[in-house]
Structure prediction request, 416 residues.
Amino acid sequence: MLDELKIDTSVVELSKKVEERLVDIFKAVDEVCEFNSLKVLNSFHKHQISEVHFNMTTGYGYGDIGRDTIEKVYADIFKTEDSLVRGQFISGSHALTVTLFALLRPNDTLLSITGKPYDTLDEVIGIVPNDSSLKSFGVNYEQIELVNDDFDYEKIEKRLKESFVKVIEIQRSKGYSTRKSLVIEAVEKVIKLIKEISPETIVMIDNCYCEFVDKTEPTEVGADIAVGSLIKNLGGGIAPNGAYVVGSEKLIKLVAERLTVPGEGKEVGPSMGMNKSLLQGLFMAPSVVASSLKTAIFASLMLEELGFKVEPKYNEKRADIVQNIIFNNPEKLIKYCQGIQAASPVDSNAIPEPWEMPGYTDKVIMAAGAFTQGSSIELSCDGPIRPPYIAYMQGGLTYQYGKLGVMKAISNIINQ
Ligand SMILES: *Cc1c(COP(=O)(O)O)cnc(C)c1O
Prediction:
């Protein structure tokens, strides 16, 4: 059967040796999974989740018990006062956009302390000109680069003492950059500094790809508001679209009134049949995130053994589910992505090619043979076609399918 999938025998042999070395690391992943499963289960019990919560509303969506309860569950998970979990958010980028527009007013300043934010925010902020950007409304933007993959504490302190900064954005996952993702301890340390100098500054976290990777979420260590995508970690591969925002009641009200209507806020927004998927997705999420982590760790050691540069290494502490493979070669990047696609359950016959994606500057290759379009909690691999030709691989609904995908992709590059 492995022949049928065109997985090389040398790759199978290597996988056995690699897995033996990963036993203890996988055990640690399982331990975090168990902790987060308990977190979810306790919240389901607290809110007495039952079939009534799977019901849906249409039209305005008044009195949607399922939707309102899901938002209470999310607030529990993140230990916040409130949350907004909606299919009316197209995805994470949309939720980040709505949140920024909700929190910032003309002449306010947005400061990113993790360098340039995720590519899709370029036109939202106005880094790339757009008539609908924050900049076009008179919102100032500044950024401070990371130094040696950590915050530039000195520069941050100096800037905060100069004049008031309304919102600080911290993007934990690396996006399409070459830096490392930020573990919760680093986030905690910098928030402490920010709050000491400027307690009124809103700390906003782009939490995409980081949920349930560790036992603690950023809102537990001082972040005021956090945003993430439901076609990533917390959707558990079951949510059909959407995003979440968690934070204080006051901030969530602002975000809700920007997403819907001032004066209506959270009261409207029909769930149109997705409540059960959101609950089931969240229920599965700790385990799906664990499978994604194991897939990433497996890939990291396999490719390292084959002489490729990888980040993070198999035994490094992880902040997110993303595995980088630095190919230094466009053909290998493309072949690897095509291998991931060929091992997918859906669209396995499609051969991905680099293309000009809306919202991105360079051509990007994207492999995702997923049940949900663009879902990257399902095994997926993408990368901009620019040096050093890095593959960004993430997801894996089960470790077994993830492992097969990695073995197929490796076979695809060694048989080139
Ligand atoms: C994926 C991602 C986003 C955007 O989320 P989408 O759901 O793809 O719109 C934003 N920030 C980071 C760090 C991401 O990884």
